Amino acid sequence: MDQALHILLLEDNVYDAELIERELHKAKLHFVAKRADTRTELITHISEFAPDIIISDFSMPQLNAIEALELLAEQEHKIPFILVTGSQTEEVAVDCIRKGANDYILKHSLTRLPSAIKNALKNQEVEREKQLAEEQLKHSEERYRFVVENIGEVIFQTNEDGEFTFLNSAWETITGYTNLESLQKPFTHFLHPDDRAVVFTLYQKIWHNENIGKTYEVRFKAKDDRELWFEINPQILYDERNNIIGTFGSLRDITNQKLSEQQLKASLEEKDILLKEVYHRVKNNLQVIASMLSIQAMYLDDDQMKKILEDSQNRIFSIALVHQKLYASNDLSSIAVDDYFKDLVGQISGLYGGYEVMIDLDIENIKLDIDTIMPMGLITNEVMTNSFKYAFAGVEGGRINVNINKNSRNQVVFKISDNGKGFQEIPDLKRPKSLGMQLINLLASQLNAELTLENKNGVTYTLVFTAKSLN
């Protein structure tokens, strides 16, 4: 030992005390010794000398070993105590050990004293470590119990039969059921009737060690018959032999979250219905306007004015078709491009049924929002109308191509072309003169599109742009 061992000798005989010290020196123990033979000296030395071990004779005129042990117990001093006696019986020694002595040595066998001291100190260290571990475990259990009891989630444990064996206070706070009403009862008793089959299947999977994922959402019934939603996280509980003895886990109350989701869903469904009704009415109103223009054209003798009204009708029809598609769609945020343009191109072609023109469509299966598809429809109407009117006079095998695809940069490439006569003079896209070209240029600006016009083997309009919503 690096530090000297403090030994307190309770001995009235100086010669016997010297014998004990001599034996300890022979064993090469590094120690400092003090001697006492009265109660007062014992108390003083305990306080000032702080002995690591006490070696005591059994009987002294003013103090005996039993009294010394009782004093140590009263003052809660846990100091190793070895009885050294020469005349007392083993019954007396055993009585001292019952009172707290660690060992006893006969005076004619002092050679055993050094090893007895070492054993007593070692046992004290083991006892101290054990006590420290117990205190740490107690504090850990107290902290664990505090967390379990104050956490907002229900912590539960069940036996093999699915009966609750543990529930923290959150269970009563949330459900209204006390532990007395809940423990030793099957947890299925508290489930919503419609979810019992689901949970039964879940636990069957757990029992057969199947992977069930982390959490499930199930409904319980509160004591006041309210419907409660919990997120359950069940785990298998094993004993020390790895046998299944039940389950444990947590129940997180998500009732408010579920109610909010249901309210939000109902609100969205209501808004969808209202929005569809708006699209439906807009479409009907546009068709009424188109019909009014058609009736107005019947009373006109000026062919030029009739063509102007006819062009306006076509534009209105292309807009109305967008609202019709939205009304019929489950997704009010976007429209399927291929479906819309098939109908739009078919509608425009139907107005010019006397022309033998083939229509080729190459349209990728994508969806675009209304702010994008509306100008695209109007551009299609303008270009195809011009092609039908002016491109194919004297041309056999007329053809119009409509291509809508994505490029490598995830941009929309929108191309309309014909194999007609083309322009005698290429229009200035920056300063267009005709109303149709002005509209195309304006609509291309709305799309933030790069617009190019090629006048070779017919006319090709190409628009490249980044859509707001492309999927």
Automatic annotation (TrEMBL):
Reaction catalysed by this enzyme: ATP + protein L-histidine = ADP + protein N-phospho-L-histidine
Residue ranges annotated for the Response regulatory domain, each copy included: 6-122
Signal sequence interval, chain numbering: none
Pfam families, sorted: HATPase_c, HisKA_2, PAS, Response_reg
Gene Ontology biological process terms in this record: phosphorelay signal transduction system; regulation of DNA-templated transcription
EC supergroup of this enzyme: transferase
Gene3D superfamilies: 3.40.50.2300, Histidine kinase-like ATPase, C-terminal domain (3.30.565.10), PAS domain (3.30.450.20)
Residues modified as 4-aspartylphosphate: 57
Enzyme Commission number(s) from the entry: 2.7.13.3
Residue ranges of domain PAC in the record: 214-266
Keyword Membrane set for record: no
GO-annotated molecular function: ATP binding; protein histidine kinase activity
Superkingdom field: Bacteria
Keyword annotations: ATP-binding, Coiled coil, Kinase, Nucleotide-binding, Phosphoprotein, Transferase, Virulence
Entry's transmembrane regions: none
InterPro entries per the UniProt record, alphabetical: CheY-like_superfamily, HATPase_C_sf, HATPase_dom, PAC, PAS, PAS-assoc_C, PAS-like_dom_sf, PAS_fold
Domain PAS: start-end pairs: 140-210
Coiled-coil residues: 118-150
PROSITE patterns tied to this protein: PAC, PAS, RESPONSE_REGULATORY
PANTHER family: ETHYLENE RESPONSE SENSOR PROTEIN, TWO-COMPONENT SYSTEM SENSOR PROTEIN
Protein name, UniProt field: histidine kinase
The species this protein was found in: Microscilla marina ATCC 23134
The organism's taxonomic lineage, starting at the top: Bacteria, Pseudomonadati, Bacteroidota, Cytophagia, Cytophagales
